[in-house]
Structures are given as structure tokens and as C-alpha cells.
Amino acid sequence: MSETTVTAAILVIGDEILSGRTKDRNIGYIAEHLARIGVDLREVRVVPDDEDEIVAALNALRARYDYLFTTGGIGPTHDDITADAVAEAFGVGIGEDPRVIAMMQERYAPGDFTPARRRMARIPHGADLIDNPVSKAPGFRIGNVMVMAGVPVVMQAMLDNAIKDVKGGAAMLTANVEAGNLPEGRYGDALREIALARPAVSIGSYPSYDDGRFRNQIVVRSKDAAALAEARAAVEAMVGRLKGDAAPL
Amino acid sequence: MSETTVTAAILVIGDEILSGRTKDRNIGYIAEHLARIGVDLREVRVVPDDEDEIVAALNALRARYDYLFTTGGIGPTHDDITADAVAEAFGVGIGEDPRVIAMMQERYAPGDFTPARRRMARIPHGADLIDNPVSKAPGFRIGNVMVMAGVPVVMQAMLDNAIKDVKGGAAMLTANVEAGNLPEGRYGDALREIALARPAVSIGSYPSYDDGRFRNQIVVRSKDAAALAEARAAVEAMVGRLKGDAAPL
What is the ipTM of this complex? Predict the structure, then answer.
């Protein structure tokens, strides 16, 4: 493919996701945003609040993909250790950032600017800040790693700022073909032939189950609009033909 | 700790999660179930429908944790390649399993038992089947790896069967302390002291944001009921004291 491909990973940091207490809502949100700007999300990992685990995952993912987005662990409490782990992964120092201190002194009266809150000003040396319009304490970017909060409303606001400087590749174009109640087992063979003949497109078949019955959708994806349109037509024709043929379920 | 610790990981397989098209609902569900039976979920990965990526993740995770649960990629279409990847990871053959063929011959009339559907009978050699009461085509277990469907209703039914043979360790006990609108920045220092003094408990602080304001909850976790009760009391006393002291937000 002559188009530039830009890749990314997400690292979700937090015991609360692994214990089941908190259901992640950031992965899908970030995934959609990256797709929209032409960045291919290739991998996601979720790790606990453990510095060694976070460092290992940071280093594996930042080396392998163009961008790494992290969520969680940048608040004021003792279990917020992401900034330290990032400094460790990059082999740089960490300390109170005068830009953040100034920002927080504006927000908090002197008596309210507690040591816990000062912790949120600890930023790895050399990082750029990611503005947080919701609750002030910023995220940061160092190298190709964007470090964001875990609370969805804060993460979403940071993401808007974090991706301003991300250069996406050609956007992935997608087309949905509704197969409805036509079973995957009826169209799987024909769809395989269509897919194998078209290496420039990626075709997925996605069943869902609502109200006691399956519903299938076929998604065609490509960065090439003409290839997408041709494949979509082939899939639609195949589905139309099989629906006409199909015996009742 | 004298208690046995049993660990697990989840591997989510599917382009549709990484593209943002489908929002995962399995991670949180499995996480809750594992916590309930005393299994510590330590890591989650999401990878695309790419055999090399799936094999690498399978081998990394099954070597490191006591159990690995996978979701996705076991349907009848060309993008369903999980069973082949599992066989490859374990270095075993794969072929149509006579048990599954028999099961599916009962379900489908001969004309409806398409090659695509026969693909769902391909099971790595030596695997045990995981019953699927929803849509028949089974998952399977090989070694410490449980291979399940991606559609949540099917995955949930398979999980009930998959975990019957899982021996959990001591269950993690948890206590929630509601901090309400008391800001993390006000209690972070006191909570850190409480946490540092109690290595047998794990304490997390979790903000959420609803209707324009933050709400904080502190979660105390331990496998030791007495240690949990003592730590919970310490956290409750601290929160009560600070709420009494607190200036208006």
C-alpha cells in the first residue's frame, strides 16, 4: 500500500478495571477517534497499578507503535503512579513542573493546595502538557506517549487536545452491509471467496444477539474508495442473492 | 501471604474492537466473575484478527498466568481464525472434531450444514469442549486456555461452563467507603498514610463525574477479613473527620 500507515496502542492503567469494579469506557471512545483521524489502533493492554508492570507495558508498546495513549493513574492519591512509571520508562527525572504549579495556584487557595494536589504537578522532565479544561490538572506528552486521566469526561477533554498534533495516515473507509437474519453459516463460504479475491479490503462479519435472535452485519474496510465500493457491491449482491434463496430459518 | 493466589489474563481478539465499531462488553463481565471466584485478573490484551499477533499474545499470556480466557474469532467466517492460532501456539494439529460434527448434524439439516458451519467444528487436537447452550457451536479448553465466543450472550453462557473447573484462591474481599464530594486532593495525604501502614490491604481512590460534579469512592481490598475491617474503619474515620472539617468546595 502506498498510503502512509500510522499506528497506535492504548494502555489502560488501573486495578479497578481488572477487578471488575469499573467498566472501561475509554477504549472504545479512543478507538473511534483514532479511526476518524486515520490512525490504526493495533493493540490494547490493561495492567494493574504496579510500577514494574506499567513500565514494561509502556516500553513494549511505545517501541512498537507510532503513538501510545495511556489512561488512568494521574490523580492525587497514592495509587496514582503513572507519571513515575513513565519517567522510569523513559529514563528521565520527574519533579514538580512550574507550569502546573502556577496553574494550580490559580485554582486553589493556599490552604487548599495540599501535598496530595501538588503530586498532580509532578511531570517527567521534558514532557509537554496536555490541557485539561475539566479539572485543570493536566496530562502530558513525552516522546510518542500521551498520558491522560482515567475518568472518561476528563480523558475525553484531554484526548481532543492530545490528538491535535497527531498526524494520521489515510483514513480507513468503511461500509456496512446489513445481512439481518441471514445466518453467517449461510453466507460464510461466499463471503470467504469475496474476501480472498480482494486483498486491498478487509471484510469482517459481526453477529450480535438481540431479543433472542442473531443479527449479522458485514463490514468492508479499505483506504481505497474505489476498492471499497467494488467490494461493497459484491457483498451486497451476494447477500441479496442468498436472502432470495434462503429457506426459512 | 499464605493464601494461594490464582491468576488470569483475558485476550480479546477482533478487529472490530480496535476499529471502535464494537464496544467490548466482555472484559468487565469476565473480570467480575473471576473476582467472585477468587481469581486475580492481572492483564488484558486486545489484538487484531492476525494469526501472528494472536499466537504471540497467547504464548505470552498463557505462560505467565494460571488461566487465560480468550473471546472472539470462533465463528464460521473467514475472519474467524482463533482456533487455528491456538493450535499453532500449542504446536498441535487441528481438524474437525467428531463430537462437534455430531452435535451440529443434530442441529442442521444436511443441506444447511455448509462448509462455513463445518469450520466451527475445527478444534485443536487434545482440547476439551466448552458447551454453548445458546447457539451450539462450542468453545474449547486446551491446557490453561479457555477459548470462548465474542458475542456477549454466547460468551457469558460459555464462561459459566468454562469456570466450573477453575480452582480459585481465597476470594478478594472489598469494602466501599463513600467520600461523596470530598475532593481527592483533600483526603489524598491522609489516605496515603493509611495505605502505607497496611501492606495486607490494597486501597484505591476512584473519582467519577456525574451531572457536572465529581464523586469519589474509596475501595479497600484484602483477602483477610480482619485486616479489611480494620482498614475500612480507618478510612471511614478519616473521611468522617475531613467531611466535618471541610470548607465548602
Answer: 0.94
Q: Which of A178, A157, A168, A173 is nearest to A230 (CA)?
A: A173
Bridge partner list, A8: A41, A67
Residue A204 touches chain B, beta carbons under 8 Å: yes
Which of A159, A103, A94 lies closest to A123, judged by CA? A94
Q: Check A204 against B15: CB less than 8 A apart.
A: yes
User: Is domain B173-245 classified as CATH 3.50.50.60?
Assistant: no
Task: Tell me what the pLDDT averaged over chain A comes to.
Answer: 94
**Nearest-CA distance from B73 to chain A in Å?**
10
- List C-alpha distances in Å: B74 to A62, A184, B122: 30, 12, 9
**Among A12, A40, A117, whose Cβ lies nearest the Cβ of B185?**
A117
Interface contact B206, partner A, CB < 8 A: yes
pTM of the model: 0.94
**Would the CB atoms of A19 and B42 count as touching at under 8 Å?**
no
Encode pLDDT of A85-118 as tens digits. Answer: 999 999 999 999 999 999 999 999 988 999 999 9
Would you put residue A39 in left (φ > 0), alpha (ψ -120 to 50) or beta?
beta
What is the spatial distance between Cα A160 and Cα A34, in angstroms, rounded to a whole number?
11
Cβ B16–A219 below 8 Å, yes or no? yes
Share of chain A above pLDDT 90, in %: 88
Note the pLDDT of residue B2. 43
Residue with cell string 483477610: B224
Partner-chain residue, chosen from B43, B79, B214, that has the shortest CB–CB distance to A46: B43
The dotted CATH code for A6-165 is 3.40.980.10
A189-237 pLDDT, tens digit per residue, is: 999 999 999 999 999 999 998 777 889 999 999 999 999 999 999 999 9
Indicate yes or no: CB of B79 within 8 angstroms of CB of A53.
Answer: no
Spans of chain B, pLDDT less than 50: 1-2, 248-249
Per domain, the residue ranges of chain A are: 6-165, 173-245
Of B20, B153, B174, nearest to A31 by CB-CB distance is: B20
Asked whether the predicted pLDDT for residue A68 surpasses 70, the reply is yes
Chain B residues touching residue A112 (CB < 8 angstroms): 185-186, 247
Q: Which long-range contacts (CB under 8 A, 24 or more apart) does A22-25 make?
A: A22/B28, A22/B206, A23/B27, A23/B28, A24/B24, A24/B27, A24/B28, A25/A152
| Contact residues, A window 225-244, toward B, CB-based 8 Å cutoff | none
